[in-house]
Amino acid sequence: MRWGTAVGVCVVAGIVLPMLWQHSLVDLKVYRLGGSTLLDDASALYDARLAGLPFTYPPFAAIVMVPFALVPWPVAVTVWTVGTFLSLVAVWRMSVRLSSALLLAVIAGSLLLEPVRETLGFGQINLMLCALILYDVLDARHARRGLWIGIAAGIKLTPLVFLGLLVVTRQWRALAHASAGFAVTVLAGFLVSPHAATQYWTSLVSDTTRIGGLAFAGNQSWNAFLIRLTGNLEGGGAIWLALVAVTVAGGLWLSRFLWVRGDHLAGISVCALVGLLCSPVSWSHHWVWVIPLGVSLLRSCHGRRRIVVGIAWFGLFTIAPIWWPPNHDNRELDWSFGDQFLGNAYLIAALFAVVVLAVSRQRVSAPHSVATSCHVA
Q1: Dihedral of the alpha carbons of 209, 211, 217, 223, in degrees to the nearest 10
Q2: Ranges of the chain whose pLDDT falls below 70
Q3: Is 54 helix (H, G, I), strand (E, B) or coil?
Q4: How far apart are CA 294 and CA 60, in angstroms?
Q5: In sequence order, what DSSP letters do the residues of 242-302 get, joined into one string?
Q6: Where are the transmembrane segments (predicted)?
Q7: Which of 200, 213, 275, 320 pairs as cysteine with 161 (C-beta 3.0–4.6 A)?
Q8: How far apart are CA 279 and CA 1, in angstroms?
Q9: How far apart are CA 65 and CA 52, in angstroms?
Q10: In angstroms, rounded to a whole number, what is the distance separating the alpha carbons of residues 301 and 299?
Q11: Where do runs of H (alpha helix) occur along 58-158?
């Protein structure tokens, strides 16, 4: 019966996913642009454009992308897509223990989640980084635990938020490894291209105009919410900074609370949520953390409530109501109250998750490999 269900889910996903896949791996093309520019003229890394799109990542990310720039496009696409899919499998395996049939079903079904299918469609790196960070934080068996967080942050800055988790849970050795790993990525960038690295770390790192329209519906962050609400394209200003401060303080407190309680997965997921909410730009495909966060929510519920919450949570990120109101060309600035409610659905779901996890009394036993190896005061 379980295998029959799993096969049925795979068939449905195989039929529906191509209908929703509307992209041409444009971000992978930009990644390759970074790698090829580094080989041709490293100093021009942040001047190169692909159909108007610039390379917006740290110099170390371009170094990582060099192998994908050297191989033919079909090979790069195949390796990248397979790597993304294997990362999705790893995220599920590290988040929850399931039988083989159920694991196959949830993996196939999660391909329809909007953040996942957007990551696949754009050729984004989000699932790879998510899997890497989960492994680094949850598995204490490797000697340099924390190192991969630093390397992930060197590729894409958002993983820096997990240094906050290491601080509030007093995992000093892992923090040292993460900091050293990040420092090495920064140094590598300066060694390969001093000009590009100086340009990035002195000016481009804070330039959100290179990333895209901040008001766009796909930007699910506090900053975007305030922009759409007020109509001020300059950003949320002082209100946004205050909201960020409250979110960081409250989010890291909850992350520590969940970690100490034994729910390490929830602690990591809430920390990721802090990064998503507080970043000036959090595109919908950055929200792949809804998988471990959703698993954490289900663990905190019981009986029929668990079924309702599971359907509501994963259903929301499948139908993706953020795309229902008018979007593109700053039409988001004219949203009605109903449009605001739908268009900021990911933010509302995040608040729901925080409340549920904060009030839950469910205590989760920490995995042996982490519980016996991490110092948490």
Answers
A1: -60
A2: 1, 19, 361-377
A3: strand
A4: 32
A5: HHHHHHHHHHHHHHHHHHHHT-HHHHHHHHHHHHHHHSS--BGGGGGGHHHHHHHHHHT--
A6: 60-82, 94-113, 147-168, 174-192, 238-259, 307-324, 344-360
A7: 275
A8: 44
A9: 19
A10: 6
A11: 59-64, 66-70, 73-95, 100-110, 114-122, 126-138, 147-155
